[in-house]
Amino acid sequence: MGLSTIYRPARSSDDAWTVQEFEGKLRQKEHFYHINHPYHVLMSEGKMNKAGIRGWVANRYYYQKSIPIKDAAILSNCSDRVARRLWIQRLIDHDGDENDTGGINAWLQLGLSVGLTEEEILDERHVLPGVKFAVDSYVNFARSATWEEAACSSLTEMFAPKIHQNRLDRWPEHYPWIKADGYVYFKKRLGEARRDVEHGLRVTVSHFVERHEQEFALNILQFKLDVLWTMLDAMWMSYVADMPPYFSCNKKPTHNDD
User: Fold this and answer.
1) CATH code that applies to domain 17-240
2) Beta carbons within 8 Å of 223's beta carbon, 6+ residues apart
3) Shortest CA distance to 178 belongs to which of 50, 32, 91?
4) CA–CA distance, 123 with 209 (Å, rounded to integer)
5) Is the pTM of this model over 0.85?
6) What are the pLDDT digits (tens) for 38-79?
7) How big is the CA angle at 78 (ends 192 and 84), to the nearest 5 degrees?
């Protein structure tokens, strides 16, 4: 999926929203954040089984490893040196440096803590086709969009601290079998996400200033929300509904004598 698939409103005679109104419209998109997906609701309420937790961690790894690739694509389209110096921190947050092993390694630690092996996480044997398709569409969007448009798509981070804190508060009680060192990623992202949101919002409200541009920004953010929601749709089918990819093709044929 690329930029051309996101609806771009025509120029409008309507007055532009103020910065405060525009930010408010962006934040209202939280209604569609994947914290509200039934899959996340089950995890939050302690009702997800071990296979569902492990499946989520294994599939989400594909997203985690793609984040710095997406951010590198954004940097490649950015001619603003100051913005690049700020944005490059996102790559370091996930890939790590000499002072920090990074978010990808922290996610691998979560995988080990829920009972997965490093090999099965890295070889992506559990990653569902629907998850790959959704994540790849996001990376391709970042490559084809302007850097400001791609920055706008990152604003789902506005809603992330709540979901990270929710896991830190509830999972140790609901899932005592998960080792405590697996929660490093969620703790790490609490501060990083808030910092990233501040920068992403500044870019978005200063770049999308006309009413039709602001409406386009809302559509971009909705696209990113669609990516996250679609990932969980695929996981729901596989781990909750017990309908993994090609499940019907793998059933043994039944013979009807009628």
Assistant:
1) 1.20.910.10
2) 1, 5, 6, 141, 153
3) 50
4) 44
5) yes
6) 999 999 999 999 999 999 999 999 999 999 999 999 999 999
7) 40
